[in-house]
Please model this.
Amino acid sequence: MEVTKTRIFIADVRILNEPHRLATAMQVVSQARREKATRLKTPGAKALSVGAEMLLQQALECVHGISGTLRIAPGEDGKPMLSDYPDIHFNLSHSGHYVVCGLGFQPVGVDIQKMERPNLKLARRFFASSEADWLLALPVAKQARGFYDLWALKEAYMKYTGKGFKLPLHAFQVDCQNESAINPGALIVVDGNSMAVVIKNYPELENYVLWGVTDRIGFQEKLEWISL
Model:
């Protein structure tokens, strides 16, 4: 298979809030996804869960010509993997009205967050001390964006490693101390060592932040929109 840059796909799931469309969508995803969605309480949460796997299906068909129900199983550290296509890496995220899928031949982590008024006390509780110091020193008008950029980038890195929240948020740091905002040139530091990763920010979604982390090959420049 040809090695290409990791691609980021995105879809708006609001169409799945209609009961008949959600019912139809439930029939095209895996049994595990149906069971997970059934346990969720709100139509919006169900739409995000089902929409995430639908986006993965459509991204795989678009890029690789793979169609049909997917077999997904946890990898070594619990990160979901494609059982039949172990060389293809993916990662999913959702927030608000959107689902996002990172897809490529290298490990990838993506995270999207809808921005609301943040509880800045969480910074001291969960972030590395240097990150919390940076965030709380920002002008008040920039703190909400700084909080969500930091949270989404850190979560994307955690998902990239395959460990997810098994890797605590405070166990590594984003080196942003000399910056007024986090940018894709920021370094991720673990035990004093900079990680050899590629960071990508997609700033075009109003009231959302979206970050991706991968390695070596990097990301394609633009988001790719898919209609569910």
Observations:
- The mean pLDDT is 94.
